[in-house]
Amino acid sequence: MRLEGKTTVVTGGASGIGRAIATLFAEEGAKVVIGDITTDVKEGGEPTHEVIAQAGGTALFQACDVSVWDDVDALVSLAVERFGALDVIVNNAATLGGGAKLLETTEEDWDRVMAINAKGVFFGCKRAVQQMLTQPVHGDARGRIVNISSQHGMVCAPGKIAYGTGKAAAVYITRQVAVDYAEDHIICNAVAPGRILTGKPLGGPGSDPLDYSEMRTPMPRLGRPGDVASAALFLASDQATYITGHNLMVDGGWMAY
Question: Pick the catalytic residue: 163, 172, 181, 257?
Fold first, then answer.
């Protein structure tokens, strides 16, 4: 029960990594507010907030487009109104976009991906900090922010320039927020997944990214959403002491290879 009594917000919590984070946080005692554009689960199954409730946890769903400030504001405001505080926000919502090289990436594709993967993290961090600054310090923190970045914020994402740039922005935002608000006891870290098997589409025309990822990953399996959720749980908990501005790789050794 590492998050017992904590109020948490998870964006993009309907499917994949966000779903795993939301359900694990609830299992660990958190009250979870899920923000997403839909309750549909890409992998199939009941909506995340219903699964949590059926297991005896506490969860709410709020429709939220993270590229829209009013939506993010309403999401955090709901968490505070219903549960009294915002202890943790996980900025997980992201999109792969069209997946193209520089010359094939349109302005519309670029703007759509950056609006979610970069501006969405900016909005989530900004609204969280606004709220957390009004809260008392408990232990080392007024609140904790966990951004979901990617190994493709550290190395190139072949054929996905917008996606990689957006994830690099998430890494930079994490460090900037951590430094700017450390003296205010606001903790900001990121989790950078490697190849995680979710319901997201794979690769592009003619590609075989699954075989490549298996070859490229030193560990004898690819990642699962629960691997990322466990890392996010650690950074969201009071066990993560004296850690801020860190981008935690969860990639099976990919970046060490």
Answer: 163
Task: Name the one residue in this structure whose structure tokens are 């560990």.
Answer: 219
Distances in whole angstroms, Cα of residue 228 to Cα of each of 3, 105, 186, 231? 16, 29, 22, 5
**Phi and psi at residue 96, to the nearest 5°:** -80, -25
| Cβ 14 vs Cβ 34: under 8 Å | yes
Fold topology of 7-256: Rossmann fold (3.40.50)
Q: Tell me if residue 163 is catalytic.
A: yes
Among 113, 147, 117, CA closest to 9: 147
Least Cα distance to 66 among 108, 109, 14 occurs for 14
pLDDT of the chain along its 257 residues, tens only? 999 999 999 999 999 999 999 999 999 999 999 999 999 999 999 999 999 999 999 999 999 999 999 999 999 999 999 999 999 999 999 998 877 999 999 999 999 999 999 999 999 999 999 999 999 999 899 999 999 999 999 998 888 999 999 999 999 999 999 999 999 999 999 999 998 988 655 444 444 567 878 888 888 898 899 999 999 999 999 999 999 999 999 999 988 88
Cβ-proximal residues to 113 (8 Å cutoff; 6+ apart), any chain: 95, 96, 97, 98, 162, 163, 166
